[in-house]
C-alpha cells in the first residue's frame, strides 16, 4: 500500500526517519511551513527557511525515494510579531509559486489575537488570488471555538470549503468540519493530538470521505510513521481497505492536487528531468556513499556495531 | 548568425503551443521595460506551469548554432523551462545594475529547477566577471544538479574562476558523486596544485578502504613526478580495467621517463591508446 504523509516537518527530522518512512510505504509527503520551536526574529531567517523547504529538503527527501512537497505561509505564533509578519507577507508571493508548493499553510489561530486574525485573513486572500488550497492549523487551546472561527472566516473571504484542509481535528471538532464541507485532517501525534486507536474509531464512525490522516512529526516527540501505523491498525481492525486508501493516500492527493503541483505520476512515472535533479532514490549521498533504504531502525541501537 | 536570445526563442517556438508562446512573448515585452523585479519573479514562477518542463531535445545543428553564437555554450541537456527562464533573464538584463541585484536575490530564493536555470545561463549574461561570487555560491550546496549547472557543459568556470575556485570545484565534483569529463577546460586548466590535492585525496580514500573514481588521475597525469608516479603505478596494477585505462591515459600525459616504463607493462591499454580508441570519457563511472 502506498501512503502520503500530508503534514510532516522534515527539516526537524533525521535521515533515519526518511529511511523508515520509505520502507513503510510513504511515497510522498507535504512539509508545511511552521514555527521552529522558537520564534524567528528577522524576515531573513524566514526567507532562508522557506528556501530550505522548497530547495534542499525537497532534494534530501528525493534521495530516499520520497517525493517532497510543501506549503508556504506565516504561522499563527509568528503572526504576533508585527514587524516580522509584515516582512513575511511581502515575500510570500515570491515563494508561493515555487515548484511543488501545494497550498498556503499552515495558517490559522494560536491565541486568537487580533494580529493572528489579520494575517490569517490576508493569507486567505492570497490563496484565493493564486488559486491555491489552504492548510489550516487549528489551535491547541480553545480548539473547538478556534476551529469554528477558522471556517467562518474562510467562508467570509469567499473560499470554497473544498479548497480548505482543516488540520489537527479531534472527536470534538470533526462533525462540524465535515458538515460544512471542509476536508478534515487528523494528526497522529502522541500525547497532545490524536492517537491512532482513536483515529480508527473515527474512521469507523464517519467513513473516510474527506478525512485525511497525517503525522505532523516535528521537533517534538512524534512519530514519522504515524500514517502507515494508523493504516495497519485500521486494516487489522477491519476498516475497509478502500477507506484506509482514501484517508492515508487518496484524499490528500485530491485535496492538494487542486494546486496542480502534486500528481500521482510524480512517483509512479517520474519525468526524466526530476530523476536527474530531485528524485534519485539511489543517489550518492554526501561522502559518496550509496543511499540504501534500510530496515526501519537499522541505524538505531547498539546491535549494528560496524560503521563503514 | 543568431544571437543566443534569437536561438532560445526559435527553439521554444518549435516546442510549445502558440498560446504558450504568446504568453511568453507578452512577459518578455514587460521584462524589457521593467523597472522592478516583480514581473521577473512572477514570470520565472509561471514558466513551468505555462510551458512545461520537457527536455528541449536540441539537434546537432542547434547545438552547433549555440556554439557559434557563444563559444562553449552547450544547452544539450536544457529543458524547456530552463531555456524560457534564461530567455526571461536575458530580456531583463538590459539594465546591468538592476540585473545584477535581481540575479543575486533570485539565487537566494530559488527552488532547485530555478537555480539550475540561473546557473546554466551564466555564459549568456552581461558583466560575467561580476557574477563570479554568485557562481561560487552555486557550487557550495550539496544538490548535485545545481552544482552541475555551474560545473558541467558550461564555459563560465574556465573563463572566470581563479585557480583556487577552479580546483575546489573539480575536487568537490568527486565529493558529491559527480563526474569530471563534462567540465569544460579540464585539461587546459590542469595545474600542479590540483594534481597534488588529487593525490592526497586518493591516499585518504585508500586509507579508508573506499572506492575512488578513475577520472581523478586525469588531473594528475600532466604533473606526475616522484611519489605521484608511484600512485599511478599502483593504479596501473589494478584488477579493474577502468583503473588501468585511467592509469594509461594519465601516464601518457606525463613526460616523466618512469611513466613510459610503467606504460610498457600496460600492453592492451597502450594498444588502445595507439589506435585512438581509449579516451578519458571511457573511464567515467556510469
From TrEMBL, chain A:
List the CDD domains hit by this protein, alphabetically. TatD_DNAse
Residues crossing the lipid bilayer are none
Kindly state which keywords UniProt assigns to this record, in alphabetical order: Hydrolase, Metal-binding
Where does this protein have coiled-coil stretches?
A: none
* Stored InterPro entries: Metal_Hydrolase, TatD-like, UCP005295
Does the UniProt entry include the keyword Cell inner membrane?
A: no
This entry's Gene Ontology molecular function terms read: hydrolase activity, acting on ester bonds; metal ion binding
Q: Which Pfam families match?
A: TatD_DNase
The family this protein is said to belong to: Belongs to the metallo-dependent hydrolases superfamily.
Q: What is this protein called?
A: TatD family hydrolase
> Which source organism does the UniProt entry give?
Microbaculum marinisediminis
From which lineage does this chain's organism come? Answer: Bacteria, Pseudomonadati, Pseudomonadota, Alphaproteobacteria, Hyphomicrobiales
Automatic annotation (TrEMBL), chain B:
What InterPro entries is this protein classified in?
EboA_dom
Instruction: Kindly provide the name given to this protein in its UniProt entry.
Output: EboA domain-containing protein
